[in-house]
Amino acid sequence: MKTRITEMLGITYPIIQGGMQYVSYPELAAAVSNAGGLGTINATLYKRGEDFKQAIRQMKSLTDQPFCVNMSLLPDVKVGDEIRYYIHICGMEGVKVIETAGTKPDKLTTLIHDAGILHIHKVPATRYAVSAEKCGVDAVTVVGYECGGHPGMDGTGAMVLANEAARSLSIPVIAGGGIVDGRGIAAALALGAEAVIMGTRFLASTEAPISDNHKKWLLEATERSTVLIQKSIHNMMRAADNQAARECLRLEEEGATLKELMPVISGERGREAYASGWVDSGIFPVGIGCSLIKEIKPVKEIMKELVQEMEKAVRRLREISNII
Description:
Elements: H1 4-9, E1 15-17, H2 26-34, E2 39-42, H3 49-62, E3 67-72, H4 81-92, E4 97-101, H5 106-114, E5 118-123, H6 126-135, E6 139-143, H7 158-168, E7 173-176, H8 182-190, E8 195-198, H9 200-203, H10 212-220, E9 226-229, E10 237-240, H11 243-253, H12 258-265, H13 267-276, H14 299-323
């Protein structure tokens, strides 16, 4: 299976595992890379450069296939010495690709390319994708409103966004948002994308480091099981409609400040919930596509199923075109 992304990254299938906080550790990422996709670890999981370096080395001990490092920054974060150091570590350790998000990539692209690394930038709207292409990135990930975590404020769905971005850019486009199965992959490729990015689907894997209760929640979810929170602090997030999310919404309605919201929305509280298994106690970022997930499986089996279903969808389209 060949697309511009599989050729660029040296992977078998056009499937990329998204960077998820307190989830995208080497064990999960390596399983995706070993199954033919591109696994991703989050740099934000490691507060010290030495810990980050050890995580990359652990990743290399678990897979000899390409993998990605996600570096998500807040819009007002400057490209300082710490970020430069983390990029330097990636270069020294032979990381294939870095994915950035959250800030304009202009100051990052030169640093990443000088380290001998490919640069993918993730955006929630085509206008940002066009800007990223002008900055010199190698590919752009566009994520629609359906995605878990932080969607764009425009409310544009993945189908329109992927289609629009693929028509507007000359560099490869990776599509995300609500894609959790092979039909979704086939649709994204038909719209002009060269690969897809998936987060929620890999939450429902045996390798995902979240509790069985969180995974059970995914299997019971419907298309109405997520909510949008943190609008009032201009950091909108799609998350599971649980007690923590509803508490966040209540506080926002009362005009709470970021400081007042932090006891509810902090990443540490979410991490503790993953460990304890109490789903209601922390924010659980998850996409609308959760409603399509029916089984918890090892990553290898998930990847096999995704590819088979994608091929089946493509065959169906060929049969339809022959009939017409």
